[in-house]
Amino acid sequence: MSILRTAISAISAVLLLVVAGCNREPAQERVDSGAGGIVVEGLSDDHWTYFSFSESRVVGTSEFGSAEEDALWAGRGDWDIAICGEFLRTNSGTSGVGNGGIQRNTLTDFYNLTEAPADGYLEDVDDIVVAR
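^ that's the sequence the OP posted. Answer follows.
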């Protein structure tokens, strides 16, 4: 579980600095964003969990493999990252209308990262799946 927390924390820090502001909706699920990082409850292999960094909360879920639900979430700007099992989506490219992206940090460990890189982010595309 610590690898999952570290991965989510690293991605969270980078995306938080890059992702544009999001629309606000009523909370569906709260998360603990204490000193240990962000902990997202309710993750599953059978549904996507959509998370907003600006609100520090889960904004909704959708069934894994549902083209209809994927299309609805792709049109929303109130989420930054989605997690389903070992897969990640960012609100970018073919997954969403946001300005998100993802980047692997190979220059330093997460705890020594003080500024997000200016470029080199990948947007989601239909033929690329990012596995944690």
